[in-house]
Amino acid sequence: MSTQFDAIIIGSGITGGWAAKELTQQGLKVLMIERGRLIEHGRDYTTETQAPWEMPFRGFDDAKIIARDYQVQSKGRSFDEWTRNHFVNDRENPYSTAPDAPFQWTRGYQLGGKSLIWGRQSYRWSDLDFAANKRDGHGIDWPLRYGDLAPWYDHVESFIGVSGSKEGLPQLPDGVFQPPMALNVVERSAKQRIEAACPDRKLIIGRVANLTEGKEGRAPCQNRSICARGCSYGAYFSTQSSTLPAARATGNLTLVTDQIVERINYDPASKRATGVQAFDAHTGAATTYTARLVFLCAGAFNSIGVLLRSASPEFPHGLANDSGVLGRYIMDHANTLAGMGPVPGFEAHTTFGNRPTGIIIPRFRNVGTSDSRFTRGYSYQGGAFQRGWPRGETVPGIGESLKRQLRAPGPWQFALVAFAECLPRAENRISLHPTAKDAAGLAQLHIELRFGANEQDLLDDAAAEARKMIALAGGKAELSFTQPGAPGTAIHEMGGARMGHDPQQSVLNGHNQAHAVRNLFVTDGSSMSSSACQNPSLTYMALTARACRYAVTELKSGRI
Amino acid sequence: MQRREMLLGTGMAIAAGAIWAAVRQFADADAATATAAVPADTLFDAVCDLVIPDTDTPGAKSAGVGAFLALALPHGLAGASMGDRSRLETLLDTAAGGSFVALPRDRQQSVLTSVDATAFAQADSVWPRIKKLILMGYYTSEIGASRELQYQLVPGRFDTDLPVKPGDRAWSSDWVGQGF
């Protein structure tokens, strides 16, 4: 196999797959390097159709294996006995945190990365978000605005397939949508009552990268809601279902798996990245790959790790880190169950099928108006559902009456989970641990991320408003939390190689191009300069596609 | 347990953190243990039959939930442990004033009913764990999931509002509902 390419992409997840599709379709010979194992679409979704009684531990998994190998992953969303093979082994992939600041780091080291297990919620950001840093002075100004990204959102949504409703909300721009999924009977009632009482709010169906109409060999969603096992229908966007087939079809893609990138090589004479140094995850055998262009898409925090590991005499604090901000200003949404409780009155109603999305209530704080208690805002995700048989676990009752009671559809519940914007702060930072190594012999990442007063103020308000809205919907919030889950819980970790106008204050320019290394592009979540309160993956994809177009133009013009 | 903590969303993950303490010891025989035939356990069979009896569908004893308990305890499901079997035996024998399993079924039923009525108010009772495991084992068995309840892996559609009719059975394949 040749080791010389036009472009090398590090990582095969949501952004790596997009870079592979875009760069190969524009004629470049591309190498995509994935650190984990090969997972082929369909063939390797080994647990997809298993019934609970066909699983060794009925889907609950072996608690001893969990305690030994998956202590972090098992606390995160979508992890279960069926999906465990799409998550990393925590014992083999340790990282470091401060004793007072645990970080919940969900990872998927395999072809497709976290695109196999993501929540699929797909939202545009608006200029309320891209202008936020400039407006209130937290962080540095984004070097782009919504108008720069809008055509790329169109491009991405058209290709991946996003179902959703057009709402005309300035804070949550409409996109190129497939027909929306439907609200259930309780959510329709809640929407009517909440919107009537609160004219500043909307309750809408989630915009989700699950198809409601087939496209390009992918079938529409079957309403199973077991996406993270892998979907042979290709009904949700993943690298495997979407970008990888497109990249392979060009004949321009070389894919290697089980290869860990140790560092990006840099040539001080030309001031260019020359390629990457990688080693085999099983044998340790080293390979040097060279290319004219390097796209770093290893996932936000691991991309920071690659750059920090790529220190050289010219960049002693990490590649492209002459500013000193590499690793700093990391963020995750502050996330909690703001309210949940029963909604009586719908006992005669039920549903059929498992819709793979909930509802959202988009941000309404500091939208057009100004709230003096805090800056920025939060949004909710949640929905109405009926409790299942576990409702019998915590109350007295045995025998025929218990069995009869649990046979019937359960009582309705309504839940609202808050996602609060996280301000960028320099002290929230990733560094390389000075001594501790992982199983591959690489320095462990040391992650320090603490939420601040503004995030807490947002969640306090979110819980109070969630209780009010659940009451408006006819329910009672029996649970309502203001304490955020550990940072990382939202799985929206981002920042660390932020974009900006000023090379002294940022790592990347407005095209995700390293200020100091012109043929190096970083297009995953590490490039974010603020966090907004929307799910960020769609924005990562749009940034990646836009950066690819720019990079190819620059390459062809001879500027890089 | 972690499956249900996760299903709705990240908010549910908060409670999950405290569930398991670190346990390093583990034998590679797990897969074998998971599928090996387990000798019948009279005590487990008795409580399974009392919690979910045979009616117009087979109950927990008939669905083999006793074997699930025998698997669940050594592997720590629902926070249980090997010692929970003897704790259960002691609890029930004490309540029965003698051997619980030696009692006729109607006496076992009244003993367990009184134990069950008070156990959930006690912090240290083994019974809530065992009862939880019985429900977990039954409603994820083929009988419990697909005959007592209904199971459909591929619904193919989402109906937003259907009338509930007398005798309707819940969907064991409603994964969100199985989290709560």
Report on this model:
- The complex is a heterodimer of chains A (560) and B (180).
- By secondary structure, chain A is α/β, with parallel strands linked by helices.
- Chain A folds into two domains: 4-121 and 224-331 and 427-449 and 491-557, FAD/NAD(P)-binding domain, CATH 3.50.50.60; 167-206 and 334-420 and 451-486.
- Chain A is built from eleven helices and 16 strands.
- Chain A has helices at 14-25, 63-69, 127-130, 132-136, 146-160, 185-197, 239-249, 300-309, 400-407, 453-472, 537-557; strands at 4-10, 30-33, 96-97, 204-205, 253-256, 259-267, 272-280, 286-296, 334-342, 349-352, 359-361, 378-386, 412-420, 429-437, 443-448, 520-522.
- In chain A, strands 1, 2, 5, 6, 7, 8 and 16 form a seven-stranded mixed beta sheet that branches. A five-stranded antiparallel beta sheet of chain A has the order 4-11-12-13-9.
- The two termini of chain A are 25 Å apart.
- By secondary structure, chain B is mostly helical.
- Chain B has a domain at 40-150.
- In chain B, 47% of the residues lie in helices and 3% in strands.
- Chain B has helices at residues 2-6, 13-16, 30-35, 42-51, 65-75, 84-96, 105-119, 127-139, 142-148; one strand at residues 159-163.
- Chain B is elongated and about 55 Å long.
- Classes of the chains: A alpha/beta (560), B mainly alpha (180).
- Strand 10 (349-352) of chain A pairs antiparallel with strand 1 (159-163) of chain B.
